[in-house]
Automatic annotation (TrEMBL):
<dbReference type="InterPro" id="IPR015421">
    <property type="entry name" value="PyrdxlP-dep_Trfase_major"/>
</dbReference>
<dbReference type="InterPro" id="IPR004839">
    <property type="entry name" value="Aminotransferase_I/II_large"/>
</dbReference>
<comment type="subunit">
    <text>Homodimer.</text>
</comment>
<dbReference type="Pfam" id="PF00155">
    <property type="entry name" value="Aminotran_1_2"/>
</dbReference>
<keyword id="KW-0350">Heme biosynthesis</keyword>
<comment type="similarity">
    <text>Belongs to the class-II pyridoxal-phosphate-dependent aminotransferase family.</text>
</comment>
<dbReference type="GO" id="GO:0006782">
    <property type="term" value="P:protoporphyrinogen IX biosynthetic process"/>
</dbReference>
<keyword id="KW-0808">Transferase</keyword>
<keyword id="KW-0663">Pyridoxal phosphate</keyword>
<dbReference type="InterPro" id="IPR001917">
    <property type="entry name" value="Aminotrans_II_pyridoxalP_BS"/>
</dbReference>
<dbReference type="GO" id="GO:0003870">
    <property type="term" value="F:5-aminolevulinate synthase activity"/>
</dbReference>
<dbReference type="InterPro" id="IPR010961">
    <property type="entry name" value="4pyrrol_synth_NH2levulA_synth"/>
</dbReference>
<dbReference type="InterPro" id="IPR050087">
    <property type="entry name" value="AON_synthase_class-II"/>
</dbReference>
<feature type="domain" description="Aminotransferase class I/classII large">
    <location>
        <begin position="46"/>
        <end position="390"/>
    </location>
</feature>
<dbReference type="InterPro" id="IPR015424">
    <property type="entry name" value="PyrdxlP-dep_Trfase"/>
</dbReference>
<dbReference type="GO" id="GO:0030170">
    <property type="term" value="F:pyridoxal phosphate binding"/>
</dbReference>
<keyword id="KW-0012">Acyltransferase</keyword>
Amino acid sequence: MDYEAFFTGELDSLRQEGRYRIFAELERRRGAFPRATHHIEGDLRDVTVWCSNDYLGMGQHPKVLGAMHETLDRCGAGAGGTRNISGTTHQHAQLEAELADLHGKEAALLFTSGYVSNWAALSTLAARLPDCVVLSDAGNHASMIEGIRHSRAECQVFAHNDWRDLDRRLTAIGPDRAKLVAFESVYSMDGDIAPIAEILDVCEAHGAMSYIDEVHAVGLYGPRGGGVAEREGLMDRITVIEGTLGKAYGVMGGYIAGSNAVCDFVRSFASGFIFTTALPPALAAGATASIRHLKDSNAEREAHRDRVATVRARLKAAGIPMLDNPSHIIPVMVGDPRHCKQISDWLLEHHAIYVQPINYPTVPRGTERLRITPSPVHSDGDIDRLVEALSECWSRCALSRVPAAA
Ligand code: PMP
């Protein structure tokens, strides 16, 4: 077989469909967020980033940087091993205690990313619970889907956010089997929020274990940043809460929080936990500082909400179509991969605005979009420039606008 020809052929079809991924090479600058330097063909350009998952700018927060510097200087770079073999440092233990406290759980367990935490925890639980059937929301993230697949347990996909469909399926499965219900709180691409209370009612009625991904909610929702489940007073009813340290907390890493038994079980059986080098202690210290800060401070969350509302109102006034949702994620709907890329290129080239196009398979075909994520540090001027530039793109591509409500 001509392997090279195969690879280039596949890549060419991606290009023809307009969904070949090109990464903008950015350099983040201390204290400058949402500004960054764009390295392009030897040139350096200042850009405003509108698609970062560092939702609150905590990746630049002095407390986070201070903790990381201090730990790096004191403890060095790497953890030096897997968690089992010399890689569990005091910083890991502190961070796990902080996370357990954040979610009101007995324990927490760290992984190298949110992706790995979902993959490792779900694959382990679903594979080892006897005769387990997994009920997975149709909108679940790839990391959950892959983990469930890897378990080889039976999986039923229930209609997105549809607790009635979940209820019907659990009824049909009956009481004798182990059941694991996996869903998210804030869905990353549509920004909609799960009916968590209803899903938990159904889980409890059928004796199912609940597993929630709060990756796009931790740090952002709830009085201490514990996520949507904290805001709604539901954390104690959820078996496993999964989250990331790489988005609102601005650092890197993933985790699950739950009872001592469930965390110890995953710790003891999950290959994605056991056989990989632990996070660097400086990252763990930075994440702990970030979580502690956001437990005490509401200022970032309030400023964030204000910026999100302002961007939404301004886009609405300009007739730019958005998905309506109750979260901080603003999906601006383009509906075509080529237009989506053209707009993203135009914004970068002519307005120094960086928003990455989101295409299939991340979202269904025909729903290609720009996923705008405001942060507390986007100014009114930044918002004006974004809306004006998008409006110009809409006219250039002759895309339809949403008429103003009468
Ligand atoms: N879950 C969801 C819903 C996500 O959107 C993502 C990442 N985009 C992850 C998990 C993985 O988290 P991380 O980036 O920390 O690997």
